[in-house]
Amino acid sequence: MESLQTTRRGFLGAAGGLTFSAVLGVGFSGSAEAQPAAGGKLQPNAFVTIHPDDTVTIIAPVAEMGQGTMTALPLLVAEELDADWSKVRTEFAPPNPKVYGNPHPLLNGGQASLASIAVPGYFMPLRVAGAQARLVLLQAAAEKWGVPVGELATEPGKVVHARSGRRMSYGEIATFAKMPAELPKVTPEQLTKPENFRLVGRSDIGRKDVRAKTNGQAK
What we know:
Layout (H helix, E strand, L loop, with lengths): L1 H13 L27 E4 L2 E3 L5 E5 L8 H13 L6 E5 L4 H4 L17 H28 L6 E4 L2 E4 L4 E4 H5 L35 H6 L4
Parallel strand pairs: 3-4
Antiparallel strand pairs: 1-2, 2-3, 5-6, 6-7
Helix pairs in contact: 2-4
């Protein structure tokens, strides 16, 4: 129990970069990863990497053991990021409970797959991570175009300025975007309303783990 409590404290410490209502539980600042990476990649937080070729790597924080977490958890991030799901690649997180631990009370910040608590535990934190990454992209595009960020919107994989008809892909933004001095704050009101979900809940989205499991590539 003491080790779990220590992990929980570390997890909350890692979340210090975001401030938002208690209704969101805990979130991830990803402060160690929130820097432009080599080769033009952009890592707004510990869960999202945007590549110049428009692909987006999203981290699944816990193991896939047949329960669908390799798809369900990245979908939560992609929904708020407004990512093009066809260009999303998923990877497993390294063992680092301070950053990737599950805040659900049954795990108390531990990083594991059990008891059907991955989606309930990560539901809000992963949505916040996706929304945070989207805000970084919007801010970078606004600075590039010299327009108020409030005039910008997103569509899957792109930032759009309707007034001028301009648009930029996430990959293009990744080549010049710089992380702000402080990571964007996310409020509950900024998250997508469930009735407006574009990805979460769709029955036509296949599971990310199936191909690798059937051709022998899964690890």
